[in-house]
Structures are given as structure tokens and as C-alpha cells.
Amino acid sequence: MCDEFGPTPSKGAYGDDSDEGFDVPWHPHHGMDILSYIIEGRGRHADSMGNRETFDSPGFQWISVGSGIEHAEGGGTPLGQNTHGFQIWMRMPAELMENDPEYGVVNPDEIPVVQLDRGQVRVISGAVDDVAGPARFAVTAQILDVELEAGAEWMYACPEGMDNAMFYAFKGSAVLNGGTKLAARQVCRFDTSGPRAASVVAGEEGFRMMVFTGKMTREDIVWHGPFVCSSRANLRSCFAKFQTGELPSKRADWDYKRISQKPK
């Protein structure tokens, strides 16, 4: 799943030391990898592992949820500035869905950038030209932020071993493989059984897109709301555990919703 949010004017900024102002209040997840990528404004996050962080744009947080987390997000952008970004959900392989959760934040100067003749590629996960992104997921994925000047051409090559490739355009437009136009708010999914390269030529206003490429697991899954599970029994168990306070099972040993309780 790819959810683009914004650009939306901020109602005010809150920091790591506040329990207030989360745009998205506390909620759980299970069995997925999550990327929250902010391209305008300031990201903010709190979770059941005790993490409390803000980060500048373009920057991101990654979470390999596994057996479960509870978190809250947003409210870090100063008043009057825009928040604009993406939240990406990726289903985990079933055998890894009960792993302990993991989390990281990556600030702008920590995102590797591949410079093109007339553009650039920010490498979030996977690799481009042997430049590897810092996000760590249970699922194999290449995620890129590609920005091209007007008229610039870029050749995309699908990595070996991956069989699911999509472009999501969010600024300007481009022509793919000499014929197909891709405009903002459109997505293109490729048939990777054929040629594994694609030509991208930016339109007269330039072009920016997210690239999502991965390896399909082809496993059956059951999901509802924030829970992705391997079976209906697993799904029922997740809801029951959350309702009785047993999920997340791996959590901070203090009241993580109250920053005043965090150990010094």
C-alpha cells in the first residue's frame, strides 16, 4: 500500500518531549514492514518500544513490525509549513511475522544519493549502482525517490531476483519507453517477464516519482485494518491480544504513552 498525504498546512509543532499533537493517534500493527517518508515538513514518531523521535525532510522512519507494535505519528512540522509524504505498507513473509519489532530513523544527510546528469535518485532501500539504501525490512524491496529535470532521460533497470516493479508519479509527468505518459497521481506496474529496463523522459515541468520494486512471496495472507496475518486464526488472536492488552508482546518496560515516565 502507498498512501501519499499532503501537502497539508501544519496546525503546530510538538517535539519528542510531548504526548500531545499527534496527527495520527496511537494504533497497532502486526505482520508488516512500514516506511514513513517525509519530503516536506518534519516527521514525528512515538512507539511501544519506547522510541520518541523527530526527523527533518527528506527523511524517513522504517519499522519492521513483526509480532506487533503500537505507535503514534505526526505533529512535528512547524506552524504554517506544509507536511507532505508517503506511508508504505509491505506484507512480511509469513515465517517472519512473529519476529521482534525493529525500528530506525534516517535523516536527510544519511540518505545516499545517486547523481544523474540532470537529476538524482535518493536510495531508501535496495540498491542502485551498488549504492545501498539504509532502510531495513524483512521483505526484499527496492524503494527510490527519483527526481528529473525537464527533458531529462533516465534508464531504470529492474534488479535481478525481483519480479514486481511499480512507478508512482507525484510531480510533473514523464513518457515511459517512448510512448506511455505517466502523470502525477498515476501508477505504472511493469510486466517483468519481458524487458527488465525502462526509459523515463521527464516532461516540460520536470518529473518526480517513487519506485517500488520487490520479490513477490506468493503466500496467502489474511488482513484486516492494521493487522496482516498468516491465517484467520492468527488474525483473531491478534485482535484478542490487542483488546486484552497483550499486544504488543515486546514493549518498553515503562508507560510508553507518557514521556514523563521514560527512564532518565
Automatic annotation (TrEMBL):
<dbReference type="InterPro" id="IPR011051">
    <property type="entry name" value="RmlC_Cupin_sf"/>
</dbReference>
<dbReference type="InterPro" id="IPR003829">
    <property type="entry name" value="Pirin_N_dom"/>
</dbReference>
<dbReference type="InterPro" id="IPR014710">
    <property type="entry name" value="RmlC-like_jellyroll"/>
</dbReference>
<comment type="similarity">
    <text>Belongs to the pirin family.</text>
</comment>
<dbReference type="InterPro" id="IPR012093">
    <property type="entry name" value="Pirin"/>
</dbReference>
<feature type="domain" description="Pirin C-terminal">
    <location>
        <begin position="144"/>
        <end position="246"/>
    </location>
</feature>
<dbReference type="Pfam" id="PF05726">
    <property type="entry name" value="Pirin_C"/>
</dbReference>
<dbReference type="Pfam" id="PF02678">
    <property type="entry name" value="Pirin"/>
</dbReference>
<protein>
    <recommendedName>
        <fullName>Pirin</fullName>
    </recommendedName>
</protein>
<dbReference type="InterPro" id="IPR008778">
    <property type="entry name" value="Pirin_C_dom"/>
</dbReference>
<feature type="region of interest" description="Disordered">
    <location>
        <begin position="1"/>
        <end position="22"/>
    </location>
</feature>
<feature type="domain" description="Pirin N-terminal">
    <location>
        <begin position="2"/>
        <end position="90"/>
    </location>
</feature>
